[in-house]
């Protein structure tokens, strides 16, 4: 027996479920809920009857056309155009043998992506280096600023400019946003996360002190046992999660904005058409692993200060 799960009843417009009582027209094969068919008293798909066609043949063609038009991302499940190379939702590669870090078996081939020719070895991903990837920053300037993994970010920034979308997924930021921001030399964002996470950790730290019967100053133990402190503890936990989720969703956009502002400031100071500006753009951007270690050190110092402040 044919499986009509996921198809639609033409009378009630409801999708068929696995356990629905379904009947089909003996002439064209159009499926209906039994109750709907009995209520109508006939098959309403008269167009197929006149053209002497079958419902199953028509829907098979539609399904094949739909599969040809759309490509589903294996990471997030989003529907993309058939020739998409990078998922428009999460940025994951949509071609099996492509590696955005440069080591690929795709070197001699081109694929279409939004109207341009794509070569993984091309520093500019097929874009015109002089094309604006933001209001004032060119593709060449963005590639120089990003440095490591620039191919991924160029496509991401291009999509942000075209669609205006700010929300993407930055996996690093869901766990350690301050590390990502420090790695990308985004000190304001890294400092904001460190300060927020340190403040939001205070209720949990005080609760731990109480549970371990450790002496506390500046606040009484009785206060820590009140219902309002319990609410404060839950709020701080949820707020800490919200900071990480927010960084995960907006981290790439914050980097896009950070890049644009930095490059604008450099060009305003040194001009846009000289070697000094290009060198300064490369120096200001890129990544630095030592800044990650520095961010960890600052986080540890902040935690130590909180412990020193509250523990006798």
In short:
By secondary structure, the chain is mainly α.
Question: What is this structure's SSE topology?
Answer:
Elements lengths: L21 E3 L6 E3 H7 L5 H6 L3 H15 L1 E2 L6 E2 L30 E3 L2 E3 L20 H8 L3 H14 L7 H5 L1 H7 L3 H14 L1 H10 L9 H4 L2 H44 L4 H10 L4 H22 L2
Antiparallel strand pairs: 1-2, 3-4, 5-6
Helix pairs in contact: 4-5, 4-12, 7-8, 7-13, 8-11, 8-13, 9-11, 11-12
Structural write-up:
A hairpin with a 6-residue loop joins strand 1 and strand 2. The model is unreliable at 97-118 (pLDDT under 50). Strands 1-2 form a two-stranded antiparallel ribbon. It folds into 3 domains: 1-69, 2-Layer Sandwich (Herpes Virus-1); 79-163, no CATH class; 171-310, no CATH class. It is 53% helix and 5% strand. Helix 8 (187-200) runs antiparallel to helix 11 (227-270). It contains 13 helices and 6 strands. By secondary structure, the chain is mainly alpha-helical. The N and C termini lie far apart (76 Å).
């Amino acid at each position: 027996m044919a499986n009509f799960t996921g198809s639609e009843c033409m009378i009630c417009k409801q999708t068929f479920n696995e356990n629905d009582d379904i009947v089909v027209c003996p002439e064209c094969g159009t499926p209906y809920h039994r109750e709907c068919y009995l209520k109508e008293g006939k098959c309403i798909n008269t167009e197929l009857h006149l053209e002497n066609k079958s419902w199953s043949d028509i829907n098979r063609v539609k399904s094949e056309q739909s599969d040809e038009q759309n490509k589903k991302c294996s990471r997030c499940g989003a529907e993309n155009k058939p020739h998409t190379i990078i998922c428009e939702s999460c940025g994951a590669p949509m071609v099996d043998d492509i590696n955005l870090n440069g080591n690929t078996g795709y070197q001699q081939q081109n694929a279409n992506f939004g109207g341009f020719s794509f070569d993984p070895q091309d520093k500019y991903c097929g874009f015109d280096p002089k094309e604006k990837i933001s209001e004032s920053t060119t593709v060449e300037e963005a590639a120089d600023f990003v440095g490591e993994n620039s191919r991924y970010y160029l496509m991401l920034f291009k999509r942000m400019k075209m669609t205006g979308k700010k929300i993407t997924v930055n996996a690093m930021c869901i766990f350690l946003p301050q590390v990502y921001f420090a790695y990308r030399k985004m000190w304001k964002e890294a400092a904001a996360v460190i300060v927020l996470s340190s403040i939001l950790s205070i209720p949990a730290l005080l609760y731990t002190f109480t549970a371990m019967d450790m002496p506390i100053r500046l606040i009484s133990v009785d206060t820590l046992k009140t219902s309002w402190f319990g609410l404060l503890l839950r709020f701080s936990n949820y707020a800490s999660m919200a900071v990480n989720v927010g960084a995960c969703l907006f981290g790439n956009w914050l980097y896009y904005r950070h890049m644009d502002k930095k490059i604008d400031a450099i060009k305003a100071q040194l001009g846009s058409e000289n070697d000094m500006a290009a060198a300064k753009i490369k120096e200001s951007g890129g990544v630095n692993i030592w800044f990650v270690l520095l961010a960890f050190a600052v986080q540890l110092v902040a935690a130590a200060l909180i412990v020193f402040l509250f523990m006798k």
